[in-house]
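Fold this sequence, please.
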Amino acid sequence: MSDSGRHGAMFRILAMLPEASRARMARMYCESLQQLLPELGDAVEGAREEETRALAHKVAGAAAMLQDERLAALARRIEELILAAQAADAYALWPAAQAAAGESLAALAAVYPPLQ
């Protein structure tokens, strides 16, 4: 299991689980992202602030649980900006959050195939 790069913390968390549970947890996380990210993207593109905030909160929580630090930070920032009435700035972070999620999904799929 890889422990290097920006996903090191995520893989360290997974390594703490019993071996039989690691792939299941990785799959659950990937499935969660694959459900939430399109919904978040739709909310951002539709400029639906409350929906964007709620979905960003869910993504941040899921990412934080697995120590996906970059995605968690971006999703939290989107949520904070919506709460601060800075929706345009929040929406501008969506491409970075989407890219971070894609990198995380790819990193997990490389270790726990097939995930995508």
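The longest helix spans residues 19-45. The chain has one domain: 26-109.
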